[in-house]
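Students often ask why we bother encoding 3D structure as a string. The short answer is that it lets us treat folding as translation between two languages. Here is a chain of 206 residues written in the first language.
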Amino acid sequence: MFFFLIIQTTIIKERDKWHVVFSCEIEKEKPKVKIDPKKTVGIDLGLKYFANLAIGRDNHFVTIENPKYLRKALKKLSNLHCYLKNLRLDFFHKLALTIVKSHDIIGVEKMNIKAMMQGLKTLSRAISDAAWGMFLNCLKNKAFEYGKNLYEVSSFLASTQLCSKCGQKKEMKLGQSKYSCECGQNIDRDHNAAINIKNLAVGMTV
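And here it is in the second language, the structure alphabet:
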């Protein structure tokens, strides 16, 4: 019989399912057994093989491989990651080319992606999956290749809190998706930011 105390509860989302994880502190005594020094093992974990074991005083070696079903699953996963990476690159190149061919002045927000990824784990994972840095590099290369002007504007100037119609600044919470201003402007938050970025890019050409 043993007692436990729940010290933390965490709700996590895995794919489309939600799970509750309980972290518990367990009060349990270690059983008393007679220790035989001959029954000693040294374990070295590795990448090529899961583990190498040195057993007993005569150092009998045992190599533990990852099971075949796991190796097959890992290979499938690696192939899938490669496929997804190629899909993403194809999308980025096509989108960047379309934007560059259709516009002479391109404005983008100057983003400190590394700093943004140091926040919440869920947010940093989403930013990593979006691969903004990869797309921006692709866009810069295409703009240079076609002789177009690309400007990076400060995120402080191109704020979602700044009205793109009258210039008034208004504090907004992260969850707010609509920007409503006293001047009558009622617009999607991200659309408002995109207009601010465009206006700043035009100003930088003067």
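Translate back mentally: Strands lie at 3-14, 17-27, 41-45, 51-55, 60-64, 105-110, 149-154, 178-180, 186-188. Keep this in mind for the problem set.
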